[in-house]
Amino acid sequence: xxxxxxxxxxxxxxxxxxxxxxxxxxxxxxxxxxxxxxxxxxxxxxxxxxxxxxxxxxxxxxxxxxxxxxxxxxxxxxxxxxxxxxxxxxxxxxxxxxxxxxxxxxxxxxxxxxxxxxxxxxxxxxxxxxxxxxxxxxxxxxxxxxxxxxxxxxxxxxxxxxxxxxxxxxxxxxxxxxxxxxxxxxxxxxxxxxxxxxxxxxxxxxxxxxxxxxxxxxxxxxxxxxxxxxxxxxxxxxxxxxxxxxxxxxxxxxxxxxxxxxxxxxxxxxxxxxxxxxxxxxxxxxxxxxxxxxxxxxxxxxxxxxxxxxxxxxxxxxxxxxxxxxxxxxxxxxxxxxxxxxxxxxxxxxxxxxxxxxxxxxxxxxxxxxxxxxxxxxxxxxxxxxxxxxxxxxxxxxxxxxxxxxxxxxxxxxxxxxxxxxxxxxxxxxxxxxxxxxxxxxxxxxxxxxxxxxxxxxxxxxxxxxxxxxxxxxxxxxxxxxxxxxxxxxxxxxxxxxxxxxxxxxxxxxxxxxxxxxxxxxxxxxxxxxxxxxxxxxxxxxxxxxxxxxxxxxxxxxxxxxxxx
Length: 565
What we know:
Layout: E1 17-19, E2 22-25, H1 28-45, E3 57-59, H2 114-136, H3 141-161, H4 174-198, H5 201-234, E4 240-245, H6 248-260, E5 266-272, E6 280-281, E7 284-288, H7 293-300, E8 304-307, H8 315-324, E9 331-334, E10 346-351, E11 354-359, H9 367-401, E12 407-413, E13 419-425, H10 436-439, H11 460-467, H12 475-480, E14 485-487, H13 494-498, E15 513-515, H14 517-520, H15 528-541, H16 544-560
Parallel strand pairs: 4-5, 4-8, 5-7, 8-9, 14-15
Antiparallel strand pairs: 1-2, 2-3, 6-7, 10-11, 12-13
């Protein structure tokens, strides 16, 4: 039988219609599983393939899913007796649990799989990097050849043992790089110890020069790979096709969340809702209830099931669903009832076989915050030295463009609600604050934040400075004064803070930042609600790797000029 994931569709669209309490499913989504079931049955009996029909399949009215009764016989897999509106999935009896064969697909070759591509890149980079390091350190050609032969496989094997590679996805975020850095540190330490023990000059050169260069190249491979994957996902490539299972409002929230971050590579293509109010949830078709998951997976060619935070699927049903998906290659994800909590704050504990999520408190003090302060002072001092000539040029341009001071000083609210004077290059005329009341009716921003794309108070030079965020460079001095941080929430005005509801005031638990999630996610193009959500997410989920990521992303955001006005 041809792999159903590669079976051509008879039409270009999925369709679903309903009439009163009983409806029909028509089109390719309904017909494909029926065709697969009929073909499979005919081949088991030795009969010829039946003709493929396109007639509608009756739909039973949606209703709550009842948990299967406990009997003395083995439990049937969830969805084994599918309702009338979706035929039963095709199963492979040779698989434990009768997995859904429609999801198995042809396994790609080693170097066509996600983990295989990374492995190949690491093998090549590790071998060439180790050889280059040995040659740069003055090693012999024979030592370089030995480094190339051993370096790639040994280092790639170490990364494999550290869990860096994953066959299920192309990248899995900060966890991948944390494990890679840990594996690199272990490799350098073990290599140095071995070289000292052997007392061999060639081994010392390989351990102290070849290994670091090779690992640096491997890290670069993973960074470039992550950037390429994010870019492709934003263009609709390399995405997981998801069937969402749960209550309608919870499915809708999942759909909105995945659409808000297209670079995550998750696309909800179908929903299984027990008592849906309509045929669509946020534009996603409702194709059945929780008991129809295996058949729906085949119909929409999905590779992932997500059980949303609020669902009427019980523990026993969830266990049977996992059994039903065994051997199919379909991933099962369960969303916790938590929002805006980053993975570094989560740990899984087991109590009597029951997995529990341990949610750590946000860190506002302590050793890691001290490291953040050191990072602020170190990078800011270096940055001021590098941009000093640029600061002089901008100051001259501002002074020549219009009457008034070069620097603009304004009261802002910092950590714990304490006010301070923030500095920027002046980008507006000197009477800008007096003219604000005349322009308040043109405000394009939501909430207490004033935004105007074509603000007449901005000078021509100021418009250029804002486009590339050059007007914010004097805030480096505020970082050295200890009033701001390199990364943090946007520094608000006192009048804005006066209008904050209770939850939004949590933005004031940390120092405001020169850049932040709001800066790299759209800047002035963001709505008030979205900017607040990003700031609160940063406050709750801060970790050092997030700061470094935001600093790197800021360079790209500034050069792209997104949302700068």
